[in-house]
Amino acid sequence: MGVVLLGYQNFITMEYQNKNNLAVRILHFPIVKIIIGIFTCILSTFLVKQFITKPLFSSIISSDTMVMVIVTLLGTLVMTATYYYLFKYYEKRTITELSFKPAIKELLGGFGLGLVVIALEFLILYLFGFYKITSFEGLQLFLAPLGFLIGAAMLEEIMFRGVLYRIMENWQGTIVALLVSAVLFELPHLMNPNGSVLGSITGVIFGLVTGIMYTYTKRLWLPFSFHLGWNLAQPIFGSNITGVDRFGVVFNAELKGDVLLTGTAMGIEDSILSVFTLIILFVIFYRGSIRNKNFQKRV
User: Fold this and answer.
1) Planar angle of CA 80, 85, 87, nearest 5 degrees
2) 296 in Cβ contact with 170 (< 8 Å)
3) Distance between CA atoms of residues 166 and 59, nearest Å
4) Residue 95: other Cβ atoms inside 10 A
5) What is the pLDDT at residue 4?
6) Domain residues of the chain, as ranges?
7) Which residues of the chain have pLDDT under 70?
8) Where are the alpha helices (DSSP H) in the chain?
9) What are the tens digits of pLDDT across the range 125-157?
10) Bridge-partner residues for 254, per DSSP?
11) Which of 16, 75, 110, 199 is 20 to 30 A off residue 155, Cα-Cα?
12) What is the pLDDT of residue 78?
């Protein structure tokens, strides 16, 4: 009888362990991790915004615009912290993609690169007589709109590079991660006004560039700051951002010539110049990633 009871106890223990192992495997399956990561980061940011920061600052600040800027920037911090602590304990690892040591260098480098690339595109248009600054509008862009651009860039980089791309790259390798994340990155932007086929192609290539920037450094700082510099530079020179014109501009400008070069109402992103410059950047960072041995193959 004792032998029977011992056998039954061992059977129950094995069944429990099997179920426990199955639950662990499911919890750590890459697609499940992606869903949990995105859902948790978005939910925590939403809850803090709706029930803490927005009610608090609305009660002490009269300007709705200033409230939204503060709430957006704090939301960015909440999302970053959520990502950090979620994956620190979920994956039981050090979150090196948010390492502070190289942050300043990569933030300044990426931001400067984004500004210079867009400035170079407008310089080319100017030299060929397609672009002319007509007036100075003001520096309002560097107030509330800059706060929104910071929040939007960090949100997208955490979602699409920190969660989706990173997990996909570790699972399926760099090539698959680049293609999947770039296409999914562009999907929400299809809802923006003044969209076009060329603009969507540019968006996918932009996703490839920021993805390979992550692979090159294995950190979020470079793709985030490049994303921010790229977005900020466009309205500085009088262009819409991905079809959106609500951010204002620093310089009012006149564009004339073939829209393949100058872009449409979507902005300079809807230009063959942006396609070429992004392809060049992709090749540079692609080769750099291989040289740094950061390129990953499918597991």
Assistant:
1) 95
2) yes
3) 40
4) 16
5) 47
6) 1-93, 98-299
7) 1-20, 243, 245-246, 299
8) 2-27, 30-48, 54-60, 64-90, 103-127, 144-156, 166-172, 174-186, 197-217, 221-236, 259-262, 272-291
9) 999 999 999 998 888 877 778 888 999 999 999
10) 132
11) 199
12) 97
